[in-house]
Specification:
alpha/beta; Rossmann fold; Alpha-Beta Plaits; 2 domains; six-stranded mixed beta sheet; about 25% strand; elongated; binds adenosine-5'-triphosphate
Length: about 325
């Protein structure tokens, strides 16, 4: 398709407005995904991620705005364009009466009508998700992890250039989870652009080149994981095991310039630090001078979860 050669990003969403009755689900939502990216879309429950993806795919109508994919406007009848798009939905969507191989073949046939051409693609997809030993199985006989892998094979068998993964690792075992993440990275190195939504921050940090945090139907922040961490004042989190921290020592710690907050529950002191230099010495100095005895002391750098919490006021997970 000639349009794939244009300079436009893989996906450009401009000022998308979507209402459900009086409720605004997408509020002039904008999104650019560059070619070759693994782009992470993060948002708390109800922030509009699924609505955005369904509007992008023309599965939902919207009030106004545009969706362009590889430089072409996406509409419900953009069949040419749809051949270049793959979708791995949040809920496993396969046919129980078809085998693994037949399911993959069916989904591939929606885009690749020629059986001979398809056979090779189906084989590659089976190989890619490691379901060779299960090709004759019905989905009902597969474990949760294998079922997710089948769902992925059905979404990618036609070798799309832009792939949407909507929470592909929910409720899978660690082995399948790693296989799925490796698979997404592999698809990306083969040239596919990926849009990825997940509730798991570590996954997003691991595989996404850029991340958008959305809430209330629009963008809250956009950047690499490091850039996002630079947008908030969250620094390291210091945790100290101590049973005898006096109120006066806690007050001194709270008064330290590095301390954003300090909480003590009688067993553990947790200090959220501001961004900047590591400054454990100041905490240790207060503990020493106040005669506080302590055990385990740990410090961890700010996480994407801290950023998310500060920007949206919500935890990502349910
Ligand atoms: N069919 C619908 N009718 C009415 N309201 C809806 C409908 N679908 C979604 N909504 C509402 O639109 C808002 C955005 O929902 P959406 O499902 O897009 O969010 P989400 O970010 O995908 O959430 P989750 O992480 O839970 O999947 C929510 O307030 C939701 O309740």
């Amino acid at each position: 398709m000639n349009s794939l050669l244009t300079e436009e990003p893989a996906l450009r969403v401009s000022a998308l407005l979507k209402r459900y009755g009086d409720m605004v689900a997408l509020d002039h939502f904008n999104l650019d995904v560059r070619r070759g990216e693994v782009f992470g879309l993060l948002g708390p429950n109800g922030s509009g991620k699924s609505t955005a993806i369904n509007c992008i795919l023309s599965l939902l109508t919207f009030e106004s705005g545009t969706v362009r994919i590889f430089g072409q406007e996406m509409t419900p009848t953009s069949y040419d364009l749809k051949r270049h798009i793959g979708v791995v939905p949040q809920n496993v969507a396969v046919f129980n009466e078809l085998s693994v191989q037949e399911n993959i073949d069916y989904f591939c046939s929606l885009y690749v009508p020629k059986k001979a051409e398809r056979n090779d693609l189906v084989e590659q997809a089976i190989d890619f998700v490691g379901l060779d030993d299960f090709r004759k199985f019905r989905p009902g006989k597969l474990s949760g992890g294998l079922l997710r892998r089948l769902n992925i094979a059905c979404g990618i068998a036609h070798q799309p250039d832009l792939i949407f993964f909507d929470e592909p690792t929910v409720a899978v075992d660690p082995q399948s989870r790693n296989a799925i993440l490796d698979g997404i990275e592999h698809l990306n190195t083969q040239g596919a652009t990926v849009v990825y939504t997940s509730h798991y921050m570590e996954e997003v940090e691991q595989i996404c080149t850029r991340i958008m945090i959305m809430d209330h139907g629009h963008q809250i922040a956009l950047g690499t994981s490091e850039e996002l961490k630079g947008m908030v004042d969250a620094g390291e989190q210091v945790t100290v095991e101590t049973l005898d921290l006096e109120d006066s020592a806690l007050s001194q710690i709270r008064a330290l310039p590095l301390a954003q907050s300090a909480d003590y529950d009688g067993k553990e002191l947790v200090i959220h630090c501001r961004q900047g230099e590591h400054n454990l010495q100041d905490v240790l100095a207060v503990l020493e001078s106040s005669g506080t005895s302590y055990g385990h002391l740990t410090s961890r750098p700010p996480s994407l979860n801290d950023v998310f919490l500060e920007l949206t006021g919500k935890e990502l997970r349910d």
